[in-house]
Automatic annotation (TrEMBL):
GO MF annotation list: 3'-5' exonuclease activity; DNA binding; DNA-directed DNA polymerase activity
Annotated DNA polymerase III beta sliding clamp N-terminal domain residues: 1-119
Compartment(s) where it occurs, according to its Swiss-Prot or TrEMBL record: Cytoplasm
Keywords noted in UniProt: Cytoplasm, DNA replication, DNA-binding, DNA-directed DNA polymerase, Nucleotidyltransferase, Transferase
Family statement drawn from the similarity comment of this UniProt entry: Belongs to the beta sliding clamp family.
Protein known as: Beta sliding clamp
GO cellular component: cytoplasm; DNA polymerase III complex
Domain DNA polymerase III beta sliding clamp central: 128-247
Primary localization class, coarse: cytoplasm
Assembly, per entry: Forms a ring-shaped head-to-tail homodimer around DNA.
């Protein structure tokens, strides 16, 4: 095998495929990246760990086609630090020789015959705008569980109903739901999948810059439990989580007593400052009155902090407490100039949504439900 490729092209391609590789793979070959050079002028890089696969095809000047397997993270580190010159790669016995300017590296070939077959990507089920996909995943995955107590809660539930997509995630302390539209290949598209939040988030970051992302849920005859994403020459698949997601939409309050609208960034900065004195697992208290929200943390002999932010209030005054980080997580992904907070009682979940103007309509396409924390007094 022998080919020549631009340094930036190689570096970006390797970085894309190795992003999900485990530092401690169960089988040594799974630490590798498979390089396939085609004399038609393409180089395909692939990585797979039985859970997630990633493949990218780039242009290369291929003198001799072939296939080699080398350590992925090592190749990524080398490619990222090479001088800005064309890279020449060739096989020589059991080694892979990499030359760039005066830099020379000799990498060990891993046994290609031991490498698992990559999962095949099913035909696309539909497509979604890249920026919409990235924002939606970012907004929802923030609420997914990061522990292993209940593996099913580490996923994002994605429901397809025709042109409507509903993404949902919860860790039992907060719940995020985003509704969006996509372009399905069939008008009667219907699907419910549970996608690992971490993988979905990484995929959205990597593919979201593209104008459009193709999504493949497989067809009815396939039971391989995979979902695939493709944008340009980048393709990735991930294994879905098994199990029945809890029916959590009942958490959404059926009625609202008080509604407050606050400038998002002002509230973020105030909560962040006041939370500096909130010790681990202690809440910040928010007291909503006409014209302002007072934010406080700390009581008694502890360090204390307080700040007031201008806010509108419709309905009775209310005092409620939240985990400051959970509140900041929701505000941070809102993507709107103003935050609308809807309440029933201090002991009941609050609903956070965004709106473009202080006296405008609320954008219900994204809702973040936050469980309050009990506080003394």
């Amino acid at each position: 095998m022998k080919f020549r490729v631009e340094r930036d092209v190689l570096s970006e391609a390797v970085a894309w495929v190795v992003r999900g590789l485990s530092s401690r793979p169960p089988v040594p070959v799974l630490a590798g990246v498979l390089l396939t050079a085609d004399e038609q002028g393409t180089l395909t890089l692939s990585a797979y760990d039985y859970e997630v696969s990633a493949t990218v095809t780039v242009e290369a000047d291929v003198t001799e086609g072939g296939q080699v397997l080398v350590l992925g993270r090592l190749l990524s580190d080398i490619a990222r630090n090479l001088p800005s010159k064309p890279v020449e790669v060739s096989t020589e016995g059991a080694k892979v020789q990499l030359t760039c300017g005066s830099s020379r590296f000799s990498l060990i070939q891993m046994p290609v015959s031991d490498y698992p077959q990559l999962p095949t990507q099913a035909e696309a089920s539909g497509s979604v705008a890249g920026d919409v996909f990235t924002q939606a995943v970012h907004q929802v995955s923030v609420a997914a569980d990061r522990g292993d107590t209940l593996p099913i809660l580490t996923g994002v539930r994605v429901e397809i109903d025709g042109e409507k997509v509903t993404m949902l995630a919860t860790d039992r302390y907060r719940l995020a739901m985003r509704e969006l539209t996509w372009s399905p290949n069939t008008s009667d598209a219907s699907q419910v999948s549970l996608i690992p939040a971490r993988t979905l988030s990484e995929t959205a970051k990597a593919l979201g810059a593209s104008a459009s992302v193709n999504v493949s849920f497989g067809d009815g005859s396939r039971s391989d439990g995979l979902v695939g994403f493709e944008a340009g020459q980048r393709r990735t698949t991930t294994r879905l989580l098994d199990g029945e997601y809890p029916k959590v939409t009942s958490i959404f309050p059926s009625s609202v007593d008080s509604v407050s609208v606050v400038e998002t960034q002002a509230l973020v900065e105030a909560v962040r400052r006041v939370a500096l004195v909130a010790e681990r697992n202690t809440p910040v208290r928010l007291r909503f009155t006409d014209g302002q929200v007072a934010i406080e943390a700390g009581t008694g002999d502890d360090a204390q902090g307080s700040e007031a932010v201008e806010a509108t209030l419709t309905g009775p005054e209310i005092e409620i407490a939240f985990n400051p980080q959970f509140l900041l997580d929701g505000l941070g992904v809102l993507g709107a100039p103003y935050a609308r907070m809807a309440f029933t009682q201090p002991s009941r979940p609050a609903v956070l949504s965004g709106q473009a103007e202080v006296d405008g309509e609320s954008d219900e396409s994204y809702r973040y439900v936050l469980m309050p924390v009990r506080f003394a007094g």
